[in-house]
Design brief:
This protein is an alpha/beta fold. Helix content is 45%, strand content 19%. Helix 4 packs antiparallel against helix 5. The mean pLDDT is 89.
Length: 225
């Protein structure tokens, strides 16, 4: 059996080694089965969410090739269901599409093989878990960001009109590099930009549109964050 492989990790905060770990797991599985992984058909998306298909170019190339009459592999190996997608509808849709076109899909870590009778049920169950994980993670993330804002801390991103100042742990703890442990970044008004912010709000309350406000700022050469 000739195999294609797909791997993915979600954000630039994750280790790029995650891709190599997934590929190695699939390679070892293929060796145990006596299958051949085709080097020209190893696909991976780096630092891209699995909650939607948009933007996952390698994934789209893999699916297009799998559905093509020129396909030169019979099996697609993926480390687990969450790597293929974290959207339940996408997960089941792709599973059915590949199966209809005679392409076998194997989730290595979970032992799911699309040729087995109960495969679609297992994919749906794992897909539901993957989808719920993302939703719960989003809730926890937003809860954490709200807590930071309520403490006058930055929730991330660049802010015009404000500077940030690091807040070290008062206990004097250090991080793994021996540097003072930072609890967060406190927001301070940037005096040199504060007048522009006040002008923006004044214009808006006077009924000036956002487009016109942007044009006024551009005409004055006010820099963005």
């Amino acid at each position: 059996m000739r195999c294609a492989v797909y791997a993915r990790y979600s954000t630039d905060m994750q280790s790029p080694a995650s891709i190599e770990d997934q590929l190695r797991n699939c390679q070892e599985f293929a060796v145990r089965k006596g299958w051949q992984v085709l080097e020209d058909h190893v696909y991976f998306d780096r630092a891209i969410s699995g909650t939607a298909r948009e933007g996952r170019q390698a994934f789209e190339r893999l699916v297009a090739r799998a559905l093509s009459p020129l396909r030169d592999f019979e099996v697609i190996l993926v480390d687990d269901t969450s790597r293929l997608s974290r959207d339940l509808v996408d997960q089941v849709s792709v599973f059915r599409q590949l199966k209809f076109h005679g392409v076998n899909l194997v989730y290595v870590s979970q032992g799911i093989d699309s040729q087995h009778e109960d495969a679609e049920t297992l994919v749906a169950v794992h897909g539901l878990v993957d989808s719920l994980y993302v939703k719960e993670l989003a809730k926890k993330t937003h809860r954490g960001l709200t807590g930071k804002v309520l403490k006058n801390m930055s929730a991330g991103g660049k802010l015009y009109g404000y500077h940030t100042k690091s807040v070290p742990d008062p206990s004097g703890r250090q991080d793994e590099r021996g540097q003072p442990l930072i609890l967060g970044y406190e927001i301070e008004i940037a005096q040199d930009e504060s007048e522009v912010v006040r002008e923006i709000f004044t214009w808006f309350t006077e009924g000036v549109s956002l487009r016109c406000i942007a044009l006024r700022l551009n005409e004055r050469g006010v820099p963005h964050p």
